[in-house]
Amino acid sequence: MIFFALLSLAFAEYTPSFGAVPLEHEVVSWDLFKTHFQKTYTNKYEEQHRHKIFLQNVDKIMAHNEKGLSWKMGVNEFADLHEDEFEAIFLNNTFKHTPSGEYHNFEGIETPDAVDWVTEGGVTNVKNQGSCGSCWAFSTTGSLEGACFVKNKQLTSLSEEELVQCDRSRDNGCQGGLMDYAFQFIKENGGVASEAAYPYTSGSGVRGTCSSAKSANPAATVASYTDVTPDNVDALKAALAQQPVSVAVEADKSAWQFYKSGVLTSEGCGTKLDHGVLAVGYASDYFKVKNSWGTTWGEEGYIRLSTTSSSRHGICGVLSQPSFPICGDITPGPPGPTPTPGPGPTPGVEEYGKPPNCPSDDVAIEIQGVTGSFCSPKCKLGIFCPAAPSDLSGTPRCALEDSSSSSKYCALMCDSPGAACGNAGMTCKSIQGTGICTWD
Question: Which residue is catalytic, options 57, 76, 172, 291?
């Protein structure tokens, strides 16, 4: 049994507000923010911490909007997150892209003054990746959805979850990936399933196990894919005249966290790529880009990036590495290589269960000064924790640290010492002004 110390609860475990609508006003009160986005916090200390961050972010938003620039910032569901937390939750170190040196030839293609694949019917509804760094998967499905719409005149929403769970040879689920790698996976795998057949479940930040049954009937295939000549506005416009295009940007600054509306002209967002998105059109002065943070963000899930920039990589690096797939045919026959499933939980045991019957990746934990023990999973990215089993209650938090290794682990936090944590054998114990669930 290993003894652990309780961490300061500085980071929040983010829960996406699926189904919420954008706020009408750019700045609102703390109470309205909490009510609108259905925010709840573990205890009063966490709420005080979140309130402080919220006020700092509101000051930043108001200071920007007072400048009267071409774009505005506003309060959204991310307003109680520090920028470091925001980066850790939503972004990832997108794998280094190594161009092949071969680019699609757009010579002789006439480029219209403006293109919008949303109004053409070639873009699915805005999706929400939740607390998972799976942006690469959403960018991949978006460009393939568009490519197959152009080919077949039919729009089908494709499965990000299949890519997150099954593409394990090159990409890394919630910890990041690259669109070209995902195109290659779909090509080798014989296609990708529809969203309906293989729905998204990794929004909590926990990557599940690949399901060969769900991926058995592909809804789209990739015949090939190609890069677009980088750092070239005309080349990206020419590609967009043909179909939606996967692009990468730097999105770890407040310009993206609180973008509300208008044409983003800020060079301050940088060009260090960490986020995969989908370019869906352009006008004379901007590229229209679909994000995967839900419709409460930006212009109902979209952002407009200026086509003019002092950097050759474009605003936020949007010109750095565009690429797109060519939609293939769905043909009957044996499937491609079967993805190798990742390890699942050990049968008969569960996260936060009673030692010694712990999942193989968990550790049995006792906390000094607290009676009882429990099985603790390791925190993902230092802040994410798996959900509690259905028979247990409490809020999963990255709250423990091994003093010898500095590794961080998860616990079920509670606020009613002495009460059962969903199971009569596990109760809430008082610790440092809050509570923690342990098995008696």
Answer: 291
- The question of whether 135 is a catalytic residue gets the answer yes
Range of the domain at 248: 91-327
Give the domain CATH number at 209: 3.90.70.10
49, 104, 275, 313: the catalytic one is 275
d(CA 246, CA 384): 27
Query: Looking at the domain assignment, is residue 70 inside a domain?
Result: yes
- The verdict on 48 and 111 lying in the same domain is no
Q: Confirm whether 432 is domain-assigned.
A: yes
Active site (annotated) includes residue 97: no
pLDDT for 342 equals 45
Q: Does residue 43 share a domain with residue 107?
A: no
H/E element holding 275? strand 275-282
Output the pLDDT for position 383: 57
What is the tally of structural domains in the chain?
Answer: 3
172 and 308 fall within a common domain = yes
- My answer on whether 68 and 169 are in the same domain is no
Rounded-to-integer distance, Cα 379 and Cα 348, Å: 22
The answer to whether 210 is a known catalytic residue is no
Distance (Å, whole) CA 118 – CA 292: 15
Angstrom distance (rounded) from CA 203 to CA 161: 10
431 within some domain: yes
Predicted TM-score (pTM) of this structure:
0.72
Q: Which pLDDT score is estimated for 425?
A: 84
Cβ atoms 274, 252 nearer than 8 A: yes
Q: Looking at the DSSP assignment, which residues form a beta bridge with residue 226?
A: 324
- Domain identity same for 134 and 117: yes
Confirm whether 426 is domain-assigned: yes
List phi, psi (to 5°) of 42: -60, -40
Q: Which residues are bridge partners to 199 per DSSP?
A: none
User: 132, 135, 210, 358: which one is catalytic?
Assistant: 135
Give a three-class secondary structure readout of 66-103: CCCCCEEECCCCCCCCCHHHHHHHHCCCCCCCCCCCCE
Q: Note whether 129 and 245 are same-domain residues.
A: yes
Q: Give per-10-residue mean pLDDT for the chain (440 aa).
A: 47 48 82 91 92 95 95 94 86 63 66 94 95 93 97 95 92 89 94 96 88 94 93 93 95 94 94 94 97 94 97 96 92 52 48 83 82 84 66 79 74 84 84 84
Predicted confidence at residue 107, as pLDDT, reads 62
Q: Are residues 277 and 145 in the same domain?
A: yes
DSSP string, 137-183: HHHHHHHHHHHHHHHHS----B-HHHHHHH--SS--GGG---HHHHH
Q: How much is the pLDDT for 346?
A: 40
pLDDT value of position 120: 94
